[in-house]
Amino acid sequence: MSLKSYIAFDVETTGLNPRENEIIEIGALKVRDGKVAERFMEFIRPRFPISAAITNLTGITNEMVEGARPRCQVVPDFLDFCGDDVLIGHNVTFDYSFMKCSAAADGLPFEKMGIDTLKIAQKVHSSLSSKSLGSLCEHYHIENKSAHRAYHDALATAKLYQTLAHYFEADYPKLFQPVQLTYRIKKEQPATPKQIAFLTNLIRKKGADIAWDPDTISRSEASRLIDGLLKG
């Protein structure tokens, strides 16, 4: 029997690495008895500017997130919204990894059971050339008015899950069972003395106004700041 109560969610991010990139939008819907009971839609103000490539993909601009709350305020609200619900996502590990890293940055746990519509599609639609959310929505005539915006993708994922369950759950019941979602956060390495010296020099040369702490900055954060300053 397909799940009637769950949370379908999606995040938009500044890149693909959950330890280096940031969430800029969370979209989710709480489904109760097969119907949308509550929605969660919010931008997050990132610490670093959104690149043109990400704006082209998502339509999210730096101006749109300018007045948004920071991660440390939005993520706890989203965790409250999730409660003990099962999460459903398309390639759910991607969204979960970002949420887990974002929660962990503020010392919050995020242990969840989940169902991945991509995994289901890979099994039941092995002959389809693409199993992307867009391709599957096209296949099933599911309308997604704003693809690559978090709430609309989450809504499309919920519709896709219910459609797949309707057609395939009886034959593949195991595929539709929630499983423990896992993502191991590797410990961040501190920035090297060479990176810190180079970054200090670069900030002075560029006259950049950047808040950072040489004692706590990680290797990946230092790399990102250096890259940003060299491009700017």
TrEMBL record:
<keyword id="KW-0378">Hydrolase</keyword>
<dbReference type="Pfam" id="PF00929">
    <property type="entry name" value="RNase_T"/>
</dbReference>
<feature type="domain" description="Exonuclease">
    <location>
        <begin position="5"/>
        <end position="170"/>
    </location>
</feature>
<keyword id="KW-0540">Nuclease</keyword>
<dbReference type="InterPro" id="IPR013520">
    <property type="entry name" value="Ribonucl_H"/>
</dbReference>
<dbReference type="GO" id="GO:0004527">
    <property type="term" value="F:exonuclease activity"/>
</dbReference>
<protein>
    <submittedName>
        <fullName>3'-5' exonuclease</fullName>
    </submittedName>
</protein>
<keyword id="KW-0269">Exonuclease</keyword>
<dbReference type="InterPro" id="IPR006054">
    <property type="entry name" value="DnaQ"/>
</dbReference>
<dbReference type="InterPro" id="IPR036397">
    <property type="entry name" value="RNaseH_sf"/>
</dbReference>
<dbReference type="InterPro" id="IPR012337">
    <property type="entry name" value="RNaseH-like_sf"/>
</dbReference>
